[in-house]
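Q: For a teaching session next week I want to show students how multiple molecules come together into a single three-dimensional assembly. I've collected the sequence lines for a complex. Could you give me the predicted structure tokens for the whole thing so I can convert them for display?
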Amino acid sequence: MPKQSSDSQELDIEFRNVTKRFENVVAVDDMSLSVERGAFFSFLGPSGCGKTTSLRLIAGFDQPSEGDVFISGKSVVGIPSHKRPVNMVFQQYALFPHMDVTDNIGYGLRQRNPKPGKQEIIKRVDETLEMVRLSGYGKRRVWELSGGQQQRVALARALINHPTCLLLDEPLAALDRKLRREMQIELQTLQRDVGITFILVTHDQEEALSMSDRICIMREGQIIQTGSPRELYDEPVDRYVADFVGRTNFFDGDVIDITASTATVKSMSGQIFVGSQPKGATALAKGSKACVAVRPEMIAIKAVNDASHSSNISINGQVMNRIFLGEHSEYLVATEGCGDVMVLSPRSTESMNRSFVPGDHVSISWGPEAALVIGNT
Amino acid sequence: MRADSKPNRWLTAALLAPTSLWFLFMLIFPLIVILIFSFGERAAVGGYAGGFTLEQYANLPSRLKAFQNTMIIAPAGTLISLLVAYPLAYYLALRVDRRYKLLLLVLVIVPFWTSLLVRTYAWIFILGGRGIPTLLELIGIEGVRLINTPGAVLIGIVYGYLPLMVFPIFVSLEKLDKTLLEASSDLGGSPFKTFRQITLPLSMPGIATGCMLVFILLMGEFLIPAFLGGGKVYFIGNALVDLFLQSRNWPFGAAVSVTLVAIMLITVSLYMRMTMRSKTGRDESLM
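A: Of course. Below is the structure for the complete assembly, covering every listed component.
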């Protein structure tokens, strides 16, 4: 069997050099990506980065200006949305206001040709209502439902059609924080149960990190990095990703030495940092501008006269602020020459050492394995 | 009862007073006068002579043709206006580029800046002997007569009342959430099915409003049939003008008026019950 066709059987969605222009705005710029069958895949990025356009290209609401979009190995360019085997959950749900819950959910089945029988539709709607835990709500008008219930109706209306792929456009943005958390767990469970590909669009990094198998980070119509949540967090390819996913301290400087996997950076104030280079990032050159990224939870905070540091990088500073957050404390430390540094100190070490108050002189330190040297874009 | 409800009630009464007085003196009171006149007799020199008789109502069949014309052409005119206005409103609301939308809307209103009388007069020339029939003769179609036919009246009606139909439908289509159309397509609905199942039902309030506006006004129309019907296509409105102004038979005119009002009340209330009951969703108001 030729390799290409075996590949395409594993893939649910594939973009090959897709570009989408709206008049003179490039929304998606020469994008290639593939989503494996059964994955929970997220497009993550700020508004206007092209993530919603990407989703609309899959749904068929927009057609690519250039390039090719594949669903289950077949090119769908030119095929209108009503003939594509994917379904979407809209941001504001887009439930039909003149129909009750049952008619909304059964809508997709009623468009089929040949149309299934009435009994068949009723049976499938009831099953789907049960799946989204809305049994008994069939006769309600959609505007009588709460936000969370409307969300479930929207999910049911899409899933009843057994799409090869479910598209979710910021589905949780309209819900309050607590409900959003619940729906995140529910969506994950649902995805495992039905076993189809979910493609989520979100600007909320926490949402993407907690639900997805793979995340695609976008900026200005281009993919910056695709990877598992852990890869994105531990090995961001550039400053944009490191900044967007989780929280990070950045130290700017010039690259003064490079080995195969590490780089040494000297800051303006003369501080020397050593860190590893993330896999997949563009290689740094000696003398180029770079920044050192250190996650706040990787930094240890000690009293300044505590001499337990070894090969670690250590900087002296003064505590500016401390926020007690229950399981950990967040310190803001003003350092000598390296700006303000955020440090997350877990409770376990807090109780061993003493906690610090604003004004205390401290020493912050981290091992070279905690630091990443990335291009300063 | 809440303590603050009393001043509010006074305020409500004060706000409603001008409208109520207007309606009382300009609508209810004249209607009562008409009702009383309709049971009276014609004075020898014309006008109203008092008395009580049902003779005027017994005489109604003599104006049967006017009633028939009105009852056929008004609904037909409403229907044709709807069929012409809907595609236009649909195009304006959903298809046209945002930049040209306002311009095109203004173009729909512009004819309103000139009196309907003048515009209908223009149609006499367009439909008359040296208008369209002459043009048709040039391409070999002869003997076409347009002016003074029910067709001419219908053309005039659709022309004159189109904006009244376009606007309510345009508003209801403009309000329509466009993602609903995408949702329908996403769920497998072809463009035609989407129109039938989503767009059309959700624009029903606009259709109902437009039809009502046009129908009510058409029932009392007299200008267009007088100009384009040339006395051959005769509406109740024309009968009333004749009775009150020409033959000065006020009691009979009053009886025709009362009958017209009664017919309108019955048809409109039936129509409203029909449209209110239909499932148009959350927005069940007619406006």
